[in-house]
Amino acid sequence: xxxxxxxxxxxxxxxxxxxxxxxxxxxxxxxxxxxxxxxxxxxxxxxxxxxxxxxxxxxxxxxxxxxxxxxxxxxxxxxxxxxxxxxxxxxxxxxxxxxxxxxxxxxxxxxxxxxxxxxxxxxxxxxxxxxxxxxxxxxxxxxxxxxxxxxxxxxxxxxxxxxxxxxxxxxxxxxxxxxxxxxxxxxxxxxxxxxxxxxxxxxxxxxxxxxxxxxxxxxxxxxxxxxxxxxxxxxxxxxxxxxxxxxxxxxxxxxxxxxxxxxxxxxxxxxxxxxxxxxxxxxxxxxxxxxxxxxxxxxxxxxxxxxxxxxxxxxxxxxxxxxxxxxxxxxxxxxxxxxxxxxxxxxxxxxxxxxxxxxxxxxxxxxxx
Length: 369
Description:
This protein is of the alpha/beta class. Helices cover 43% and strands 13% of the residues. Strand 10 (286-290), helix 13 and strand 11 form a beta-alpha-beta unit.
């Protein structure tokens, strides 16, 4: 079976065939008609590569840094919820895989493994913590302090979720967290820990509505910056104006993200939004991207258009479903190898040599017909 896993789509196919319906539909679905879900992937194909020849690419260096910390290659694990629906070890296995590959893993607040479990499982790993600002600000502070205390190196603040988007598959399934699982970061708060249970529609949407604060503004980013010692990465920016707001609020980094196309359907694909955000940032903080990344050439295009690194969500889940930690490592290895090959074929010997001139939109060629 391992020999058959030669690209990321192979892991997705396996997961779709083996995961229970409740979990499978939760992981794969986007909002409403899923226009943006499809476009996140299709948009990469609208950019063409312009390789440079005879550049001596016999050796390539994929090393880079994020927030001043080393990673072996510019591909990391995005925050996604409830990994133990895919594999018994859940986020613990993903954290170990990321650590073994010397890259970053972002733990979701609504994970089925806790901050403490991740710190114990991958003590040498580069772990970031994804955060929502809850109605209960004291609860939010407690989560931040736990992340700081257990060696997490950054907070990733999700700003595109005043409430959860409507995912039709979850509504049809009346999604609930399997009874043997829990929201591990809320263990001592029974309702919040058990949270996603019986529901008229999607249990997750009802859970989010009870906890999330739709009145948040950019002032809440400033509030978070005032009391944490960690860098704050703002996740969910798609426009130049929001990029400027994020910087003015003290953001140390920005993730160009549409929440895996799970919030507002019809927004731009992240690779389409990236150049605008990168230009608005103008070097004042690092810019990252998630959404739709499936190949090494996708990574190369994102780096050329300004991303410091990319984060993958669903592919890591599908690798986890395939073979736990080993499966996630294999997903990362494939992407790393594909990126190295794409760099060689494009004439790039290091991440620093990946320039904007390497990529051009297909409209350039269509306009010449």
